[in-house]
């Protein structure tokens, strides 16, 4: 400083010294003295002075660092080290969420240099109002010297050095009181422990606790429960808690793995119960919806029941739960955050013995009652009944327990033929009314297959099979409750046959003139033994048959007999009565030989003299129908006589019709009273007839045929019974078509080897064969079907009638002719009466086929589809000689034979008709291609070769008029092709529309360049280079052509043209059907274009810009690109084929880039591009790569370079693409010129071609 003394003194008095921060004598011993040197100089003289300044220590209050605070950077705290803190910013945490107090620390300026100062202790206090303070783990707090004052969750105070305090603060956490949200305050106070109440710092930090949703939860004393198997357990200690819920809706889902849940008090909640099946577990789920109060009341009484027969000991799922079933409780308050909680309860189910399950039996599979309901058995009296399906099981398992089974019945016998593995406690395998045995479940069930029941003899009615079972665990000695079922057994009554008692012998002696008694013969029926016949009907029939004798019946009341008999001596009779009445009648009845019976001495014994007694119980007792029991009493004669044999034949003249046989039945037989001896004698039988044959029964064996021909008759030889059996089935057959009188001569010779003379019997049978009118017979000379072509004539001359009655063709016959698809014309009708006729083709049918009535209709009148004629056989055969068949117009059977003509001939004999004779002639009509036709009022057919001069010079009978410059819609036309199958419209045609001095468009197209307005129609609009070129090429089905395009053609005359214009339509059927190849038809329409006065115009050169009077420039429009492509490609299935001939032109694109897209529906495409040179050539876009095979390919190219794409374009379709032969695919070519040239934006062109997979 420089100045006078006064100024310098003044300045020195104002001198202020600021020592280093926190510098004092205690912290820096020896360095706390500041030495001052003052030098005063004046005129080369100076004076020095020295002084020492001692810096005394001062206590600095400790400073608390806060992580978030507003600070003043220009001012400092008391320690001169910390920027002045203006305000503490609040801390933010979530409700019920711990928050670490990161960033809080304490710094003390007085404890930074000297070692003893670092041990100075601080007292720090932390307190909050609505929360809990945690000081962290013991590792952090073990440095605390001691705690100061009372400690609580909300306040912590301790004594420690600075390092310990900071270590504790880094681990200190704050958490709000449960469910608390809002504002709290954290207060921190720090002071020196050696100077309480001295320097200190205290801060208050606001804490904002953000409210969060609290999930509802289940409060329960214990999560473990114990229940008994199949016994409900009431859980009544569940409490639902939700601090946030007032009246909001809550949802609780309770789900088990195996058991079932129910609520005792579900009032006020919406309850949904459902079964849960997952990974072999079958539990239940309860869904409760309601308020907290209602749900809490509902879950206070939850009923848990284990799954049926399930327990924790036997069924331990492999999920680590040690057999516990779980109840998973999910509680939610429908909030999007923290909305749910899950509680799990564990239930241990103690096992309890389950009763044995008995599966009731049913009838055996072979029984007629096999379909009866289970639990019942049914069978017939005295018949074993098989009990099928009786088995035993237990829910507790069947491997360890022993099964004890008891079976018993009342009216029968049980049999169990299988005893393997069983121990019988009562009864045995041989059977008995009661069986008791024990064994394992497996052995018992195996033996139950052999269980049978046999009712007591003659017992029927109701019985019961009582089945009782218990199971005993041999290890625990636990026994299940007794289980039993009652199987109802219905024994149906079966009718028993009566039983005869004939005494000691069935042979009894009899004399010729004396009656023999049959006392001692009786019958017995067990079904009516215990029946009171006075109260119930037990009437039976007794049939008495006497051979070689008669029976004398005792006098009984008339109602006893089934018929009114005038005499009591009969050879055959049927008697009715109760068994007692019939037995009494049998005991009084006698047998006597017939008066004509004789006996021969050559027979020592005879068995044909007998009395047969048959009793029929009428089947009124039980099932099975009537039962018949027969016994025979044989009588042995003791006296002998002899008689002659005879031949029994019809005495009257027998009549029969022509060509029919006459059967004799029992009217022709050999009678030999000496029947006992005739069985040993051989007879020779001769039969002769003139105009027929005599046929014997072919079912008789043992007869020797000596001769059998139509000329010499029949001679047979055999025993008495054999001959009678042969005669019993004999018949007479007249010669074919013969009628008149006939005599059959019969001769029998007895060849008895005991007698020298032979007895002979001769007789005759007379017959008359009445004539019958025979139907005619058809004869044809060929067996192969006839063939012809469509719309031609066929000569049918291979048919004729024959007359079986051989009357020289004079027989009158009615012939009916029916033709299926055409008509026939007879060569002549002389001598024939036409009774009914119908023409083959009606006028309406010809009109429907678009054939004008006239000659075709007149010609069809000679052919008949239905014709009925009557005449002599000779006249009808003459008419058939030149018969001609003509099918319908355009009809064909595609080469298959069809029954076209059906003939029926009926003969007339007097006024009666005989059965008709039929024959059918099949004809195969081969298809021939027919040209298509244009149906129009004004279009006229034209020869295929024509010129403009010829058209203009021709005279037109029909034409239309149009005005110059005005478009006009042409009349609606229709295409017709006779080969269109049944009018289906699926036949495809190609139509070319040309216009001379005019142009043709169609309203059916949405824009002029559209190529495929529908899936089955392809249109190719073309701008012709000459006035006669084709303007529309159309390819499609017949129905698609007629549905829109052909009815919406627009005619437009040429510019400034008037006169005759011509519209030509050429139709090709592509040779789709029949023989003849492709056929074309051309039709022309003459249009008279009337002139209209035109306004004069000034024409400018084309495509040149002209400046008008206002200075504007005209820019030409962008022209669309054009695509040239064939309408159809043919591709062999499974082979690559080139799609050649496709060209793209765009006159105004120059070198502009075009977008080209190629796509097919079913097959695949591929293009092989050559390497690009100097970036010249087509560029593949997107997924299209060189040689790629795909259904869609995309390129960027110029019009000139595009030819390289189409030169290598190939197509393939095979089975992998879902293709098959005759499939039709479509190639779509799309071009976009991107609008680089001219006005109007981008122009596009699209064309589609058909690909036929051959």
From TrEMBL:
Record protein name field: Cadherin domain-containing protein
Organism of this sequence: Phytophthora cactorum
- Organismal lineage: Eukaryota, Sar, Stramenopiles, Oomycota, Peronosporomycetes
């Amino acid at each position: 400083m420089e100045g006078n003394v006064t100024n310098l003194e003044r300045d020195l008095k104002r001198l202020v010294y600021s020592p280093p921060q926190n510098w004092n004598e205690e912290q820096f011993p020896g360095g706390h003295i500041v030495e001052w040197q003052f030098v005063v100089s004046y005129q080369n003289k100076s004076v020095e002075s020295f002084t020492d300044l001692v810096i005394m220590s001062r206590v600095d209050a400790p400073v608390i660092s806060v992580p978030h605070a507003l600070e003043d950077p220009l001012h400092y705290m008391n320690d001169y080290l910390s920027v002045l803190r203006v305000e503490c910013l609040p801390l933010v945490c979530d409700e019920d969420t711990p928050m670490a107090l990161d960033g809080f620390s304490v710094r003390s300026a007085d404890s930074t240099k000297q070692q003893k100062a670092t041990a100075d202790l601080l007292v720090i206090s932390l307190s909050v109002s609505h929360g809990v303070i945690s000081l962290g783990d013991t590792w952090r707090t073990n440095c605390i010297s001691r705690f100061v004052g009372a400690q609580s969750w909300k306040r912590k105070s301790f004594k420690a050095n600075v390092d310990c305090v900071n270590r504790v603060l880094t681990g200190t956490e704050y958490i709000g009181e449960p469910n608390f949200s809002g504002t709290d305050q954290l207060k921190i106070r720090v002071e020196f422990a050696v100077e309480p109440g001295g320097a200190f710092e205290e801060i208050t930090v606001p804490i904002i606790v953000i409210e969060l949703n609290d999930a509802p939860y289940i409060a329960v004393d214990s999560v473990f429960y114990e229940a008994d198997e199949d016994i409900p357990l009431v859980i009544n200690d569940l409490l639902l808690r939700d601090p946030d819920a007032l009246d909001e809706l809550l949802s609780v889902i309770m789900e088990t793995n195996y058991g079932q849940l129910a609520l005792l008090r579900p009032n006020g909640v919406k309850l949904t119960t459902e079964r849960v099946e997952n990974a072999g577990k079958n539990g239940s789920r309860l869904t409760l919806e309601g308020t907290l109060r209602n749900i809490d009341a509902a879950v206070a009484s939850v009923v848990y029941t284990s799954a049926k027969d399930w327990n924790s000991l036997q069924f331990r799922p492999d999920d680590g739960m040690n057999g516990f079933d779980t109840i998973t409780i999910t509680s939610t308050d429908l909030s999007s955050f923290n909305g749910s909680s899950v509680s799990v309860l564990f239930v241990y189910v103690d096992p309890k013995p389950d009763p044995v399950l008995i599966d009731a039996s049913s009838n055996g599979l072979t029984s007629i009652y096999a379909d009866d309901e289970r639990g019942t058995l049914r069978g017939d009296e005295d018949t074993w009944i098989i009990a099928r399906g009786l088995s035993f099981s237990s829910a507790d398992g069947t491997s360890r327990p022993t099964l004890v089974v008891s079976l018993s019945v009342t009216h029968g016998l049980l049999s169990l033929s299988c005893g393997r593995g069983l121990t019988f406690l009562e009864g045995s395998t041989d059977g008995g009314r009661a069986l008791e045995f024990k064994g394992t479940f497996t052995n018992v069930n195996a033996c139950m297959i052999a269980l049978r029941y046999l009712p007591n003899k003659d017992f029927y009615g109701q019985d019961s099979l009582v089945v009782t079972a218990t199971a005993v665990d041999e290890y625990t000695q636990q026994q299940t409750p007794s289980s039993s079922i009652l199987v109802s057994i219905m024994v149906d009554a079966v009718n028993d046959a009566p039983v005869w008692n004939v005494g000691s012998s069935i042979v009894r002696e009899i004399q010729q003139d004396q009656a023999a008694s049959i006392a001692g013969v009786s019958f017995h029926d067990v079904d009516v033994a215990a029946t009171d016949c006075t109260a119930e009907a037990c009437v039976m029939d007794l049939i008495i048959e006497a051979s070689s004798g008669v029976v004398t019946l005792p006098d009984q009341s008339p109602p006893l007999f089934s018929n009114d008999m005038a005499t009591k001596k009969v050879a055959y009779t049927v008697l009715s009565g109760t068994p007692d009445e019939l037995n009494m009648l049998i005991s009084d009845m006698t047998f006597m030989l017939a008066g004509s019976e004789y006996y021969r001495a050559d027979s020592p014994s005879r068995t044909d003299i007998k009395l047969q007694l048959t009793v029929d119980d009428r089947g009124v007792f039980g099932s099975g129908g009537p039962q018949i029991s027969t016994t025979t009493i044989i009588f042995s004669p003791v006296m002998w006589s002899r008689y002659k044999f005879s031949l029994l034949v019809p005495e009257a003249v027998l009549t029969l019709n022509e060509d029919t046989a006459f059967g004799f039945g029992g009217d022709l037989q050999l009678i030999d009273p000496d029947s006992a001896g005739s069985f040993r004698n051989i007879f020779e039988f001769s039969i002769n007839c003139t105009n027929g044959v005599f046929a014997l029964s072919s079912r008789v064996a043992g007869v020797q045929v000596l001769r059998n021909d139509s000329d010499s008759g029949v001679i047979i030889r055999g025993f008495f019974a054999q001959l009678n059996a042969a005669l019993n089935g004999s018949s007479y057959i007249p010669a074919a078509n013969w009628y008149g009188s006939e005599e059959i001569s019969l001769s029998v010779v007895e060849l008895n080897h005991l007698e020298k003379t032979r007895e002979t019997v001769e007789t005759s049978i007379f017959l008359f064969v009445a004539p019958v009118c025979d139907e005619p017979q058809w004869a044809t000379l060929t067996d192969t079907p006839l063939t012809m072509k469509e719309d031609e004539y066929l000569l049918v001359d291979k048919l004729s009638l024959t007359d079986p009655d051989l009357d020289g063709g004079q027989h009158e016959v009615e012939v009916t002719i029916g033709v299926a698809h055409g008509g026939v014309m007879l060569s002549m009708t002389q001598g024939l009466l036409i009774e009914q006729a119908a023409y083959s083709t009606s006028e309406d049918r010809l009109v429907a086929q678009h054939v004008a009535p006239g000659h075709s209709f007149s010609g069809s009148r000679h052919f008949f589809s239905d014709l009925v004629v009557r005449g002599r056989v000779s006249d009808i055969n003459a008419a058939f000689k030149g018969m001609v068949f003509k099918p319908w117009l355009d009809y064909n059977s595609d080469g298959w034979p069809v029954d076209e003509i059906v003939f029926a001939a009926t003969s007339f004999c007097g006024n009666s008709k005989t059965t008709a004779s039929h024959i059918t002639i099949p004809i195969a009509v081969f298809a021939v291609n027919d040209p298509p036709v244009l149906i129009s009022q004004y279009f006229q057919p034209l020869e295929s070769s024509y010129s403009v001069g010829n058209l203009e010079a021709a005279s037109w009978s029909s034409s239309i008029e149009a005005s110059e410059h005005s478009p006009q819609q042409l009349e609606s036309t229709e295409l017709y092709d006779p080969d269109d199958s049944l009018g289906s419209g699926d036949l495809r045609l190609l139509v070319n529309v040309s216009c001379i001095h005019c142009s043709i468009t169609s309203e059916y197209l949405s824009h002029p360049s559209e190529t495929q307005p529908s899936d089955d129609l392809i249109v190719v609009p073309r701008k012709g280079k000459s006035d006669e070129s084709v303007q529309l090429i159309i390819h499609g089905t017949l129905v698609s052509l007629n549905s829109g395009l052909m009815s919406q053609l627009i005619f437009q005359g040429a510019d400034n043209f008037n006169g005759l214009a011509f519209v030509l339509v050429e139709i090709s059927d592509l040779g789709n059907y029949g023989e003849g190849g492709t056929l074309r038809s051309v039709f022309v329409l003459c249009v008279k274009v009337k002139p209209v006065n035109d306004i004069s115009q000034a024409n400018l050169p084309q495509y040149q810009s002209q400046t008008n009077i206002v200075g504007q420039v005209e820019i030409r429009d962008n022209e669309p690109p054009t695509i040239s492509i064939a309408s159809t490609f043919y591709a062999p299935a499974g082979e690559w084929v080139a799609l050649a001939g496709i060209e793209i032109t765009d006159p105004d694109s120059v070198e502009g880039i075009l977008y080209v897209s190629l796509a097919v529906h079913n097959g695949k495409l591929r293009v092989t591009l050559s390497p690009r040179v100097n970036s010249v050539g087509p560029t593949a876009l997107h997924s299209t790569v060189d040689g790629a095979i795909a259904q869609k390919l995309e390129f960027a190219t110029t019009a000139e370079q595009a030819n390289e794409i189409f030169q290598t374009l190939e197509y393939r379709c095979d089975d992998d693409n879902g293709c098959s032969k005759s499939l039709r695919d479509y190639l779509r070519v799309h071009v976009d010129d991107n609008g680089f040239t001219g006005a109007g934006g981008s122009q596009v062109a699209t064309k589609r071609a058909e690909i036929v997979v051959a």
